[in-house]
Amino acid sequence: MFVVKFGMKPFVRIIIVSIIYLTFSISLFSSYSFAEQTQTIHVLFIGNSLISVNNLPDIISNLSKFYHLQIDYDQYTPGGYKLSQHAVDEQVLKKINRGIWDYVVLQEQSQMLSFGENQCTQYVYPYAKKLTDMIRRANPKAHVVFYMTMAWKNGDPNFLMPPKQRYEPPWSSSSSTMHWEWDTFERMQQRIIVSYRDVAAQNHALLAPVGEVWRSVRQKLPSLKLYTDERHPNLTGSYLAACVLLKVFSHGQSVVGLPFPKTIDKQTAQLIQQQTDELVDLTYSHYSWETRL
């Protein structure tokens, strides 16, 4: 308890009272600011090893503190899992039915949305809708986020691209594999981008364009290593994905200036952050996300 003696000289009393008031005000303001600005959001990640490798949700959770966000998360990410498997998995249903999630991230197996419209219509879109419906029944306010994956490092080695002016199937007697082209990263990524845009639009969901940012960063810095093998991200790649998803969770706040792991140099981190801002903002404009948040 502070006591100010009235026998003190006036200017001494003024100084002491001012210090007491200032100390109390700073303490009160600091407590109020933290309580006012810090927000807890609950996120469920449903996918496979593209999420579990490097513990992507934990990277996002640690970065979120710089937005005064606290992310409480859960994940169900068995290796190689497809949305068709998640849609009938009791563990997924149990997690969704907790009904606490502000965001539920859906990530398809990396090949599935690169196979073309007919295959996606049969093997992906119905299960994406089933999961989306399950999520919204459990919590009508939950935001569904489709995590657009990155293509394989050198494309799908089992995928042949038909020539533009030829329509014979590759098994036709008049066709030859010499007229067909092997897949590349760029081709596979473009197919994935188109399909993820479709599935997000069909379900009136949010889209985290990780694959688009990934492609742009590779184009601008071809020597940059983003993969740990042909399909999975290394820590730099997971950091890129974390920036994209966090920008979505934070309603489009800039990720420029976020901290980054010691294994990533400043120039690379800045490029990832700048491309994330540019391409996620562009996606917002394409999909009018403001009305969905």
Describe this structure in words.
This protein has 293 residues and is of the alpha/beta class. It has a single domain (38-291), classed as Rossmann fold, CATH 3.40.50. It contains eleven helices and seven strands. It has helices at residues 10-37, 49-52, 56-64, 83-86, 90-96, 117-123, 125-138, 185-202, 210-220, 235-249, 266-287, and strands spanning 39-46, 69-76, 103-106, 143-147, 160-161, 181-182, 206-208. α3 (56-64) packs across α10. The radius of gyration is 25 Å and the shape is globular. It starts with 9 loop residues before the first helix and ends in a 6-residue tail after the last helix. Mean pLDDT is 84; it is low at 1-8, 10-36 and 165-179.
* Class computed from helices, strands and strand pairing: alpha/beta
Tally of domains: 1
The CATH homology group name = SGNH hydrolase
Q: So what's the overall shape? A: globular
Q: Average pLDDT value?
A: 84
Biggest sheet character = 5 strands, parallel
Helical proportion, percent range? 40-55%
| Beta-strand segment tally | 7
Query: Architecture, CATH level 2?
Result: 3-Layer(aba) Sandwich
Q: Quote the beta fraction.
A: 5-15%
- Extract low-pLDDT stretches: 1-8, 10-36, 165-179
Number of helices: 11
Strands side by side in the biggest sheet: 2-1-3-4-7
CATH topology: Rossmann fold
How many whole angstroms does the radius of gyration measure?
25 Å
Order of helices and strands: HEHHEHHEHHEEEHEHHH
- What distance lies between the first and last C-alpha atoms, to the nearest angstrom? 48 Å
The CATH class is identified as Alpha Beta
